[in-house]
Amino acid sequence: MSDKVLLDANVLYSQPLRMMLLNLVNLDECSTQMFWTEKIDAEWSDALNRKHPEGRDSVIRQVQSIKASFFDRYVLDYEPLMDQLELPDPDDRHVLAAAIKTGCNIIATDNIKDFPAELLAEYGIRTMTRDELMCFLFTNEKGSVIKALDNFARVHKDPKLTVEDLLIKLERSVPSFTHLVRDS
């Protein structure tokens, strides 16, 4: 059985990491399935717009493009589950509800404290930080990850990037992953 991962907004916030994950989602040979919701898109895009209001139109286009290209990865109709869930931060119930609805066994988030392990275990779910997720993917799907890195570098034209350029961009958000890739 392949792993299913619900990607939280803080994982999708970083543009290089978001693009890397989308490249992985796009690969047929990647057996790990990744999901998110419109609310999660709204969270990361709103945070980007607050930090960089001058790029608002670009962010809107990115979200529209992602939704058009990856609509099958959006979790729908998870909202009824939210009222049954209790978390330290009630605003995170939508993440857990979407993970349960999709049968995810992993929630990728950097807000580990907001998702108590004992509670998630009841649903067969565990958390991973974004760096842990990328190391997990590299360990279990090395060929797919390398191909996604190569694809990302190949299609990035302005400016033209190498895989090493991408690793430099990713290093800040997923340092252990970038070391793993370089050491392999």
Question: Can you walk me through this structure?
Answer:
This protein has about 180 residues and is α/β, with parallel strands linked by helices. It is built from 11 helices and 4 strands; from the N terminus they run βααβααααβαβαααα. It has helices at about 10, 15-25, 40-50, 55-70, 80, 95-100, 115-120, 130-140, 140-155, 165-170, 175-184, and strands at about 5, 35, 105-110, 125-130. It has a 4-stranded parallel sheet. α2 crosses α9 (about 140-155). The chain is globular, with a radius of gyration of 16 Å.
State the helical fraction.
55-70%
E-strand count: 4
Portion in strands: 5-15%
Shape verdict: globular
Whole-number average pLDDT? 94
Summarize the structure.
With 184 residues, the chain is α/β, with parallel strands linked by helices. The chain has 11 helices and 4 strands, in the order βααβααααβαβαααα. It has helices at residues 9-12, 15-25, 38-51, 56-69, 79-82, 93-102, 117-121, 130-140, 142-155, 163-171, 175-183; strands at residues 4-7, 33-35, 106-108, 126-128.
